[in-house]
Structures are given as structure tokens and as C-alpha cells.
């Protein structure tokens, strides 16, 4: 009988957990928060009654603690670098460094669920470099970050801003795009790189990639024109001789 009741007990326990999740008493999810190097970030608490005691932790280590009988106390590398709002429970960390990345959580009887935050610290994006080349009758555009950059590169997104008269579909890589050389090469195309906190752009005029038929004609005319002028001057001088 006891053995047969085990599956039923497990299903019942699962049902209780699901109910608590729906009622917001338990939260297993960790909210991702992004902060910039040397900037500040605030982790927001959610309470259902006034705070009488608060403990913020990074992993298992205390960041700051307070109760209504004592002053706010900060720990470890967070001394003089955090502010705890004892009314809202919010924690602000100043002068972020890459080493501040971790999971943070608030513990208090005033919080229904022990809120968890995964802090990711990101450096400012460098400006990208945009290059182009003629490949199989198309202009291949490539957007690259040439500087050494290793801060959450998985978060970098590439996009292209093209005039309405030109189509520039992405290639096999998001950092590449293609334009047919028959298009209006006087147009400008922008490459945009971004992450959750930063956005950088760079642009290029298509005519700098490869001359179109019209621009070739202009180049030929510019090359021939000096010779024509010299020829006309020579004929004029020759005919003007006595």
C-alpha cells in the first residue's frame, strides 16, 4: 500500500508546487540584469509589506544586510560601493566591474519569493569596420569588430540599414550582406551592432566598393578629357602658325 501510494504522493507534491508558482509564492526563475562597466545598476525588490529586515546575497555570500534595529552593513568588495534603500528594498551597486557578475538574491520575510537576479556586466562596444568587395556580380559587405572585444560576444546583434530602393539581404552570417551592382551605387548603407546596453553604427557609400557602368563611363571620360584638350590646343597652335 505504501509503495503504491508513492506515485500519488509525488503527483500531489507536484500539484502543490505548481499552485505555489501560480500564486507567486515561489520563483525558480532568475531575472537577467545588464550593467555597464564603471556604471551603476539597481536590483529591484518586490515586497508585499514594509521591510523590517533585508539581506542581499551574491551567491552564498552576503552583499549587504539591515534590520530595523541596526544600520546598513556592506560586506567584502561591496563596502562603499552599494546603497540599500530600506523602504523599497532595492540594491544599487556602483562602479561595476567584470568581477561583479554573478547571481544575486534578496532574502526577507517581506518578500514572497526569494527574487534572483543574474547580473551580466558589459563593456562598451567599439565602432565596427565596414568593408566591401565584388563577388559573383554582387557587392559583398562585411561588418567586423577589429578591436579585441571579449565581453559577452554572444549578445552582439548585427543589422543593416538600407535605403528603400536597395535590397541588402543578410548572408550566411549576420555580419554579411549583399547588394547587386546594378543598384544605385550612390546610396549609403549602414551596419549596426548592438547588445542590450550599447549600439554602434558605421556606413559606406556603395560607389566606393565597385564602379557601376555609369561611373566607369565617367572615369573613362575623365581620363580622355585631358588628352582631348591637349590635342585641340596642339591643332590650334599648328593651324595658327604662319
UniProtKB/TrEMBL annotation:
Claim: Transmembrane is one of the keywords in the record: yes
Chief location of this protein within or outside the cell: membrane
Bilayer-crossing regions: 219-239
Signal peptide start and end residues: 1-28
The keyword Transmembrane is annotated on this UniProt entry: yes
Subcellular location(s) per record: Membrane
Keywords (A to Z) from UniProt: Glycoprotein, Membrane, Signal, Transmembrane, Transmembrane helix
Top-level taxon: Eukaryota
Protein name stated in the entry: Lymphocyte function-associated antigen 3-like
Organism name: Balaenoptera acutorostrata (Common minke whale)
Amino acid at each position: 500500500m505504501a509503495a503504491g501510494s508513492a506515485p500519488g504522493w509525488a503527483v500531489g507534491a507536484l500539484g502543490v508546487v505548481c499552485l505555489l508558482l501560480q500564486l507567486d509564492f515561489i520563483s525558480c526563475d532568475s531575472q537577467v540584469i545588464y550593467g555597464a562597466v564603471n556604471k551603476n545598476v539597481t536590483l529591484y525588490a518586490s515586497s508585499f509589506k514594509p521591510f523590517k529586515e533585508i539581506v542581499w546575497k551574491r551567491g552564498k555570500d552576503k552583499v549587504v544586510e539591515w534590520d530595523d534595529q541596526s544600520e546598513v552593513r556592506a560586506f567584502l568588495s561591496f563596502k562603499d560601493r552599494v546603497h540599500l534603500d530600506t523602504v523599497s528594498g532595492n540594491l544599487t551597486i556602483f562602479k561595476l566591474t567584470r568581477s561583479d557578475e554573478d547571481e544575486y538574491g534578496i532574502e526577507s520575510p517581506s518578500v514572497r519569493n526569494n527574487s534572483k537576479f543574474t547580473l551580466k556586466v558589459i563593456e562598451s562596444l567599439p565602432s565596427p569596420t565596414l568593408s566591401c568587395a565584388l563577388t559573383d556580380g554582387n557587392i559583398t559587405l562585411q561588418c567586423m569588430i577589429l578591436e579585441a572585444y571579449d565581453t559577452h560576444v554572444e549578445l552582439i546583434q548585427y543589422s543593416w540599414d538600407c535605403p528603400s530602393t536597395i535590397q541588402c539581404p543578410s548572408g550566411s552570417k549576420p555580419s554579411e550582406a549583399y547588394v547587386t551592382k546594378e543598384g544605385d551605387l550612390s546610396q549609403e548603407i549602414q551596419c549596426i551592432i548592438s547588445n542590450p546596453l550599447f549600439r554602434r553604427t558605421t556606413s559606406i557609400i556603395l560607389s566606393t566598393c565597385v564602379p557601376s557602368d555609369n561611373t566607369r563611363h565617367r572615369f573613362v571620360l575623365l581620363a580622355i578629357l585631358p588628352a582631348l584638350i591637349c590635342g585641340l590646343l596642339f591643332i590650334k597652335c599648328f593651324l595658327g602658325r604662319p
